């Protein structure tokens, strides 16, 4: 059974960086016999201009069905997308370096 991967390329340099990372992930998956089912969704500034929301319902539906969400850098609407993903799937932590005095 393949792992369902949702790819959100993002904005700016995001698509280029994500494409390079996906080549590495694909090579590793083939090397170790991991089956991936990769789907792509628009989110971020591109989606905001096109659909009026940074994380369209179609992207959320794909995210809900995914085992993995691989998100590239997002532009001005980063908070809308990142915070929604973190809160919806409880993927957030506030970790601060601490020094004992």
Q: What would the keywords be for this entry?
A:
globular, alpha/beta, 101 residues, single chain, three-stranded parallel β-sheet, Rossmann fold, 3 strands
Describe it for me?
This protein is α/β, with parallel strands linked by helices and 101 residues long. The chain has one domain: Rossmann fold. The chain has four helices and three strands; from the N terminus they run βαβααβα. The model has no long low-confidence stretch (mean pLDDT 94).
Task: Describe the structure concisely for a colleague.
The protein is of the alpha/beta class and 101 residues long. 45% of the residues lie in helices and 15% in strands. The chain has a single domain (3-88), classed as Rossmann fold (3-Layer(aba) Sandwich), CATH 3.40.50.
Please state the overall shape, judged from the principal axes of the Cα atoms.
Answer: globular
Work out the strand percent. Answer: 5-15%
Mean pLDDT: 94
Order of helices and strands: EHEHHEH
Q: Can you lay out the helices and strands and say which pair or pack?
A:
Elements: E1 3-8, H1 14-31, E2 36-40, H2 45-51, H3 57-65, E3 68-71, H4 78-88
Parallel strand pairs: 1-2, 1-3
